[in-house]
Amino acid sequence: MFLLAFISLNKIFHDADGAIPRKLQTEINEINMYGPYIGLVIPDAYEMNPLLQSPSFISHKTMPYIDFAGRRFRFGTIEKKEVIIILTGMGMVNGGISTQLLLSLFRIQGVIFYGIAGNANPSLNIGDVAIPQYWAHTALWNWQRYGHGPENELALEVNGEYTRKIGYLKFSDYSTVNESKTSCGNLLNSIWYQPEEVYPVDGTPESREHAFWVPVDSSYFAISKKLEGLKLQSCVNSTTCLSTPPKVITVSRGSSSSIFIDNAAYRNFIHNKFNVTPVDMESASVALICLQQRIPYIAIMGLSDLAGGGSAESNEALTFTSLAVTNSIAVVTELIKNLPGDHGFCMCHE
């Protein structure tokens, strides 16, 4: 009886021996021997697959990937630099989860996010590749009750939970007027933008900091500035080309939220309010995780459409998405090429 009980307990403890199976942990340990890696974080398969199929990417022969927690981590090299590629899926939650898994499991020296984005900046065009210096999550709000205005304290503001420092969007500013040409106000009132809570890995546990504009890595950004003369593709095919040759440009700010922005009024507001150029659904979540983990980060965004329409191009998002992806990959590859030194020991030819 004692022996049977011991065997049963041993099996329970073995089955519950950590969240990562032992065989998988052994594979992770082996992969980490060849690090550190550059982490490439990509939101969707149509943005990832062209990179995997390009001659720039060489997959590891002995262990091309491992799967864990619904994610696939692909291993290889780009321009002789060791990389790990992960697809996030849509939205801020998926972006944060995927990035945290990447940084928790593997030896990562820096993270590069790339993909397509809507464009809020009327001075830029479809096909351009924008590289912001700062990112913010612009869908963390305190929604103010009707009848209150900028002079009224927000709910829980007195406790330090919320702030009026960043700014607000008043819905009635965008209301249509009635027959008497007077504004009727709006029961939705105003939303106030809020910073994220961040718990730095090198800080006191449960001691929070706040961050709204998250800077990218200064050395990565400096290299990006040197890529502004890089020649990009202008044509999807022999008959469909951009009217203006695309360019690489470093910009001030980018914005993310789990909202697909296809609204011209909001596009104009967020550009005028915050000087935002690319708008997407994941970049800021990756930036916030890297800030918390103290890992260098940058995002490279191919502009696929003017968020909310209004450009001279017809059906621009559908027509030029593939070109925006192609150009963003070209810039990512060139950025990696210009990163200093070889990193790790390549497994590609083992």
Question: If you had to describe this structure to a student in words, what would you say it looks like?
Answer:
- The chain has eight helices and 16 strands.
- By secondary structure, it is of the alpha/beta class.
- The strands form three sheets. A five-stranded mixed β-barrel has the order 6-15-14-7-16, surrounded by five helices. A three-stranded antiparallel β-sheet has the order 8-10-9, with no helix packed on it. Strands 11-12 form a two-stranded antiparallel sheet.
- Helix 3 (45-52) crosses helix 8 (316-338) and helix 4 (91-105) runs parallel beside helix 7.
- The longest helix has 23 residues, at 316-338.
- It is globular and about 70 Å long.
- The protein starts with a helix and ends in a 12-residue tail after the last helix.
Which helices and strands occur, and which strands form pairs?
Layout: H1 2-15, H2 22-32, E1 37-42, H3 45-52, E2 57-59, E3 65-68, E4 71-78, E5 81-87, H4 91-105, E6 108-119, E7 129-137, E8 141-143, E9 168-170, E10 190-193, E11 196-198, E12 209-211, E13 214-215, H5 218-225, E14 248-256, H6 264-274, E15 276-280, H7 283-293, E16 297-306, H8 316-338
Parallel strand pairs: 1-5, 1-6, 6-16, 7-14, 14-15
Antiparallel strand pairs: 2-4, 3-4, 4-5, 6-15, 7-13, 7-16, 8-10, 9-10, 11-12
Task: Pick out its properties.
350 residues, alpha/beta, 3-stranded antiparallel sheet, 8 helices, disordered N terminus
Strands, count: 16
Radius of gyration: 23 Å
Percent strand equals 25-35%
Order of helices and strands: HHEHEEEEHEEEEEEEEHEHEHEH
Cα separation of the termini: 51 Å
Which consecutive residue ranges, at least 5 long each, have pLDDT under 50? 1-16
Question: What would the average pLDDT be, to the nearest integer?
Answer: 89
The helix content, as a percent range, equals 25-40%
The biggest beta sheet reads: 5 strands, mixed, barrel
Query: What structural category do the secondary elements indicate?
Result: alpha/beta
How large is the count of helical segments? 8
With strands numbered from the N-terminus, the spatial order across the biggest sheet is: 6-15-14-7-16
Which descriptor suits the 3D outline? globular
